[in-house]
Fold:
Amino acid sequence: MKITRRQLMGGAAGALLLPAGARAAAPATLRAGPVERQLAPEGYPPTALWGFEGSAPGPEIRLTQGARLERRLVNDLPQPTSVHWHGIRIDNAMDGVPGLTQQAVPPGGQFDYAFRLPDAGTYWYHAHNRSTEQVARGLYGPLIVEEPEGAPEVDAEEVLLIGDWRMTRDAQLSPDFDSLHDRAHGGRIGNYVTTNGSGDWTRPVRRHDRLRLRLINVANARIFELALQGLEGWVLALDGMPLDRPEPVQETLVLAPAQRVDLIVDVTAEEGDTAYLVQLTREGGLSQAAFPVAGQGAQARRPAPAALPPNPNTGLPEVSGARRLDLRMEGGAMGRLSSAMTVQGPKSMQGLMQDGLVWALNGFAGLPEAPLAEAARGEALRVMLINDTAFPHGMHLHGHHFREVQERGLGPLRDTILVDSGARREIALVADNPGDWLFHCHMLGHQAAGMKTWLRVA
Structure:
């Protein structure tokens, strides 16, 4: 008998919803519910948010590579929710995608997540039901998987969640989460930028201190262009995966929504000055993180760091004989949709817009019944990403990492790639993680408005 995707979903959910007495000790909770936080400067009221374990952003989860993560999601929200563990090569049933790998957890419900952490690196977790709203309200947090050995020697480590919030004049979140205008354009861009939920994030350092900075773009749609001032260093890892060798930081770092970068930086600013991680804007530079320098650490800069230990089973895919696929992005403002797009059956453009569906992948708006491809486990795939729209898209593949096919060879491992308007970027991967895996734009309004598909790995 052929097993359908829905049957798999039901089976996975049933296995996890055993009576509490049928399992060992209950795991730690990850409780989703309303919280308040002083996001805006003093003088404004606290902002009503949603968060995990009473905080927004949620608490850092830090474990060692190879450890088992166990958390019981408890839903105290007025909406169903789920948790996606972004970037982890995870068991499919634990991936947290309603309608594909599990049922959304209803208000008052629970769901147990339990899986091994195969890779060291910088990851994050976030809500994956109505994510345009739920992530915008604060339902996310960092997931750090430490190297058991070979970690760089540093004076301090900072995890920096950079994001934005759309605030009203009274410092509350703007309720226009389903704005068709946002969905059809660049997505929900906030008007208040923070680091770790603070608009004035600061940490004191000493001259010549060496820092490990783990940057995570948690924004709904904002692309961050960043630069260092009074700091010099190297990129060690992208999207959790170590580079073969550290690369000196160039003039700017670009992070699309959901992308991460691990940096090693030395404080080169003089005592009494301030070093910065700067967000570059049309108006100039804005402080994303400030490091006032007080005192002297090392007497001189240290040698360049060594590469991080590689994660297992991340070899190069054999691209010459790989199956080729196209994934064409269409729609949006100033773009085009075919005269009769498909959304579980033909539908006019007017009908699609009434449903809030203004984007499509390969002519289909929304999650199709059939996957983009059915791949045998271990099969190599090449996917040409074709952006026929007027906006950039950050395409994220669940359960896998991939490499960009470049003229000089294959690029570094990533799980999210930014494809500019009018651009083509080809990625290659080994489909080695069995299950049904979402592939979508991480400008979350674009995903909600139709830009998602999936891969099946048998």
